[in-house]
Design a protein that fits this description.
The structure is a single chain. This protein is of the alpha/beta class and 284 residues long. It has two domains: 191 residues, TIM Barrel; 66 residues, Orthogonal Bundle (DNA polymerase, domain 1), CATH 1.10.150. The chain contains ten helices and seven strands. The protein has a seven-stranded mixed sheet. α5 packs across α6.
Length: 284
């Protein structure tokens, strides 16, 4: 059983459509993937319908997922969710709030770019870089700046304008990780902290998030060394949490054009534990 529980599409900051992700996953020999776009779940139905139309439902299992971007004490904390009831009112409202915050941030940055840097881009210039209804984010703003001639490439746009030290950058007003965990859990989903290596207060935060319903730690991730995987796997076992993992695929690697989807080794038992956790939640 080959699985990848962290995959992005062009409904957020991924390069591929849900259809291409599905085809790529099958070609890579994956048995199951979770589509975890930032702050929306739109890609799931698109990919599911595509598999059905092409009689490939038996070749790839799709898991409904999401990655909620949150802020806590100047830390960017990402919360993954799996198997939510997307009709849950609190869950729907959280996604709506997150989407509005992304739009507000983009428009404020557009205004500051024009005033302070004389770089003129429109909201439509950014919006057209993401699938209809998808999540606008920093990569799209950076690309729009580059397309407008404000910088020679996206890396330069990030260095000059898309960071906390830039006079034109406006942080996004987002939900807290506690809110995200609570809402996902309340919608019947499994909340998991994503790539905790990025957070130097991870252990303390994980314990605090457990009081709101956190059920897992993403120990397997492309940024995590074997020692890091062992550290977070041991922490999960000690705390009674499940372990998840995935490639966090966004786009082909610049190195040899390698497709990274599914390249992270995720043990088969991780899928089993995730399914078991969902069954236990449904019985509770």
């Amino acid at each position: 059983m080959k699985v990848d529980l962290h995959v992005h599409t062009y409904y957020s900051d991924g390069a591929f459509s849900p259809e291409k992700i599905a085809d790529t996953a099958i070609d890579a020999g994956l048995n199951a993937i979770a589509l975890t776009d930032h702050d929306n779940v739109l890609s799931y139905d698109v990919a599911k319908n595509y598999l059905k139309e092409n009689n490939n439902e038996d070749k790839l299992e799709l898991i409904l997922g999401v990655e909620i971007n949150t802020l806590y004490k100047n830390y960017e904390v990402h919360i993954l969710g799996y198997f939510m009831d997307t009709n849950n009112s609190d869950f729907k409202n959280m996604l709506k709030t997150q989407q509005q915050a992304r739009i507000t941030q983009a428009k404020e940055i557009i205004s500051l770019l024009a005033k302070k840097e004389k770089i003129k881009i429109s909201f439509d210039d950014i919006k057209k870089l993401v699938a209809e209804g998808g999540s606008i984010g920093r990569p799209h703003i950076a690309k729009a700046i580059t397309n407008a001639g404000g910088t020679s490439n996206v890396v330069e746009a990030y260095a000059k304008y898309i960071n906390d030290d830039s006079p034109v950058y406006v942080p996004r007003k987002t939900v807290s990780p506690f809110d995200a965990v609570e809402v996902i859990y309340g919608a019947g989903g499994i909340p998991v902290i994503a790539h905790p290596y990025d957070i130097d207060i991870a252990e303390k935060l994980i314990k605090e998030l457990m009081t709101c319903g956190l059920r897992g730690i993403e120990a397997y991730h492309r940024k995590h060394s074997p020692a890091c995987v062992e550290y977070f796997s041991s922490m999960a076992e000690e705390l009674g949490l499940i372990v998840t993992g995935g490639s966090d695929f966004h786009a082909p690697s610049a190195i040899n054009g390698q497709i990274l989807l599914g390249k992270n080794f995720v043990p088969e038992w991780i899928y089993d534990k995730l399914i078991q956790e969902k069954k236990m939640m449904d019985l509770a």
